[in-house]
């Protein structure tokens, strides 16, 4: 048996390496990762100082050393977490072997190898994989103590692993507390050693508590309304989903896991102390996290990633039960396809993509022209912008907005006068720094929207500046029952392929609107087929139709890029309104009430060679 288990473990570790390195650089670095990279790129005193990051400093310290040898490529900055994540597999084998037998260790290692949550965070430049590994090491140290290893080195190993875990993530304190409670009950005669170990850990951790206490106190809240059973159930469910399915907790893997846990607990019944240690390490972290949840601003399943260790240990122990061995093997094998399916969704799918900031900056650099500037709203993107900073255009961070006051007006006016085109990046949640979309509205009222796109964790706009004033052509076309197009301005009417056709529309409404309509602007070839278009809500979404006030004039600009391949000829500009959900277009009527179809033609432009 030893030979095939040894060979099996070699294969499992190799497989774990492959799964954690595969497509590791597929996704862009996202905000939290960029912050980790930025922090660990600072001088060492800054890296380990309190107040820079919410989390303790061990992972930033390791990353500090790693970056100076491995570099800053996407692969390099994530490879540290991949290496740490692989170490969890042989650790689980060692735990399972000590807990029961080598086959149990192999089964636990196999579950950890395929777990989508463990793979996911082994490919992220954050501390969660390290917290799981140190949690496993701490559990191994506690198990050794329970099984009679009682020397100074054994207690020192337990104290050291607990301290390292605490210096990695605060929630590992729940695991250490569970281990300590079991040791206190099971090894009552050695309570002095346990107390001395706790004192040593506390004294070694005290400097960080003193340094970080003010920073954490600012983040603490009092939300007693979340202290209800449903919250605890949601925490358990979301963490289980992360470890098994990646996104959701499906019935088959959940049932298989419950069967394995029950069978594993039965198999470990004769090793009661070890069983209680695993059960406490699995359940107490959830309970304690639930109890402190009202004081913390948020909970994420990744904070308890380390519960995968006791969970997979108990589940794997089912293969040691003679009566349940066949059922247990079938249950383990039924879990693996569900895990693998979640892994494939992560590697290939879009649902698990965390950000596209790098792609967005590459697009800006590719499309930027002389006379462009890049405006960055939200200072929280400083770290990720520093990582993906494009060679051009020149970039400026905007102050956090509450309103367009005189100072901000002067700042934006200066940019508009100095640069022909302004790119704008709205990163994160605009409700936190521009809740009324005043920034986009100001740029839309002083320029023409040439591009608007979502990049998952940010929105990107391009405005061609200038062109203020009233419409060159006045009309009174009615869209639906209340919306009126009062006029429009078409920029240059003689263009070439690659030029921008600028179009400014002037809207108003007779009555408040309940629906949010999307504007389409089409450039039609001489034969009537569509060659270019730009669709979007008015003013790039800053002036949605359901916020229009009766009688208010909405200046709404668009810049349509003429395709390079557009043949010479006379092209028609046509606009209309439609509901995005259904695609239904509003009927249009002229001033006399004559139907004009589902859009209106504004004029003709000539495309030359």
Description:
It is built from 20 helices and 16 strands. The chain has 609 residues and is α+β, with helices and mostly antiparallel strands. It folds into 3 domains: 2-348, no CATH class; 357-465; 473-608, Immunoglobulin-like (Sandwich). The strands form 3 sheets. The protein has a 6-stranded antiparallel β-sheet with strand order 12-9-7-6-14-15, with no helix packed on it. A 5-stranded mixed β-sheet has the order 2-1-3-5-4. Strand 10 and strand 11 (530-536) form a beta hairpin. Helix 5 crosses helix 15, helix 6 crosses helix 15 and helix 13 crosses helix 15 (308-316). The termini are far apart. The model has no long low-confidence stretch (mean pLDDT 91).
Q: Give me the count of strands.
A: 16
> Kindly state the mean pLDDT as a whole number?
91
Structural class: alpha+beta
Major sheet details: 6 strands, antiparallel
Spatial ordering of strands, largest sheet: 12-9-7-6-14-15
Task: Supply the key terms.
609 residues, alpha+beta, Immunoglobulin-like, 3 domains, 16 strands, 49% helix
SSE order and pairing:
Elements: H1 2-21, H2 31-40, H3 44-47, H4 58-70, H5 74-99, H6 102-114, H7 116-122, H8 128-146, H9 152-166, H10 172-186, H11 191-219, H12 229-244, H13 251-267, H14 272-292, H15 308-316, H16 325-348, H17 357-367, E1 372-377, H18 382-388, E2 394-397, H19 406-418, E3 421-427, H20 438-446, E4 447-454, E5 458-465, E6 473-479, E7 483-490, E8 494-496, E9 500-509, E10 517-524, E11 530-536, E12 554-561, E13 569-579, E14 588-589, E15 595-597, E16 600-608
Parallel strand pairs: 1-2, 1-3, 8-16
Antiparallel strand pairs: 3-5, 4-5, 6-7, 6-14, 7-9, 9-12, 10-11, 10-13, 13-16, 14-15
Helix pairs in contact: 1-5, 1-6, 2-4, 2-18, 5-6, 5-7, 5-8, 5-15, 6-15, 8-9, 8-10, 8-14, 9-11, 10-14, 13-15, 13-16, 14-15
């Amino acid at each position: 048996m030893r030979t095939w288990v040894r060979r099996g473990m070699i294969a499992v570790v190799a497989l774990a390496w492959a799964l954690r390195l595969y497509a590791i650089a597929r996704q862009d670095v996202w905000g939290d990762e960029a912050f980790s990279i930025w922090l660990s790129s600072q001088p060492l005193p800054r890296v380990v100082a309190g107040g820079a990051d919410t989390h303790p400093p061990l992972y930033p310290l390791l990353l500090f050393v790693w970056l100076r040898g491995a570099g800053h490529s996407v692969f390099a900055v994530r490879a540290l977490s991949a290496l740490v994540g692989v170490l969890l597999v042989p650790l689980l084998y060692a735990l399972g072997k000590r807990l029961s037998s080598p086959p149990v260790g192999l089964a636990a290692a196999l579950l950890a190898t395929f777990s989508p949550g463990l793979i996911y965070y082994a490919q992220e430049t954050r501390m969660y994989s390290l917290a799981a590994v140190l949690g496993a090491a701490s559990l191994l140290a506690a198990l050794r103590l329970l099984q009679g290893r009682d020397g100074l080195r054994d207690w020192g190993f337990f104290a050291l692993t607990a301290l390292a875990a605490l210096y990695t993530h605060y929630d590992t304190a729940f695991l250490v507390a569970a281990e300590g409670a079991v040791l206190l009950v099971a090894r009552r005669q050695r309570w002095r050693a346990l107390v001395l170990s706790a004192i040593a850990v506390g004294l070694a951790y005290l400097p960080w508590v003193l340094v970080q206490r003010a920073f954490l106190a600012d983040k603490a809240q009092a939300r007693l309304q979340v202290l209800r059973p449903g919250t605890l159930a949601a925490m358990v469910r979301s963490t289980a989903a992360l470890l098994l399915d990646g996104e959701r907790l499906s019935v088959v893997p959940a049932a298989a896991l419950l069967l394995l846990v029950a069978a594993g607990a039965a198999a470990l019944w004769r090793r009661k102390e070890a069983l209680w240690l695993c059960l406490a390490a699995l359940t107490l972290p959830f309970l304690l996290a639930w109890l402190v949840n009202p004081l913390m601003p948020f909970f994420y399943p990744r904070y308890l990633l380390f519960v995968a260790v006791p969970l997979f240990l108990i589940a794997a122990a089912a293969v040691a039960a003679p009566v349940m061995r066949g059922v247990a093997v079938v249950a383990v094998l039924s879990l693996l396809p569900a895990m693998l399916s979640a892994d494939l969704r992560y590697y290939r799918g879009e649902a698990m993509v965390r950000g596209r900031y790098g792609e967005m900056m590459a697009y800006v650099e590719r499309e930027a022209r002389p006379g462009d500037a890049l405006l960055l709203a939200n200072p929280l993107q400083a770290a990720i912008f520093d990582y993906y900073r494009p060679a051009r255009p020149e970039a400026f961070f905007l102050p956090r907005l509450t309103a367009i006051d005189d100072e901000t007006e002067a700042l934006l006016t200066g940019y508009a006068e100095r640069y022909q085109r302004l790119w704008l990046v709205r990163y994160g949640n605009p409700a936190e720094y521009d809740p009324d979309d005043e920034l986009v509205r100001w740029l839309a009222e002083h320029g023409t929207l040439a591009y608007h796109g979502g990049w998952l964790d940010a929105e990107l706009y391009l405005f061609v500046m200038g062109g203020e004033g009233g419409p060159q052509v006045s009309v009174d076309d009615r869209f639906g029952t209340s919306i009126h197009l009062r006029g429009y301005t078409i920029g240059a009417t003689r263009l070439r392929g690659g030029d921008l056709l600028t179009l400014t529309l002037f809207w108003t409404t007779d009555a408040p609107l309940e629906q949010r309509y999307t504007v389409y602007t089409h450039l039609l070839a001489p034969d009537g087929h569509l060659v270019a278009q730009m669709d979007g809500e008015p003013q790039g979404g800053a002036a949605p139709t359901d916020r229009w006030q009766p009688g208010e004039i909405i200046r709404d600009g668009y810049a349509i890029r003429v395709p390079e391949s557009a043949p010479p000829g006379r092209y028609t500009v046509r606009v209309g309104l439609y509901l995005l959900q259904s695609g239904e277009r509003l009927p249009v009527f002229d001033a006399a009430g004559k139907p004009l179809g589902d859009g209106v033609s504004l004029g003709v432009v000539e495309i030359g060679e």
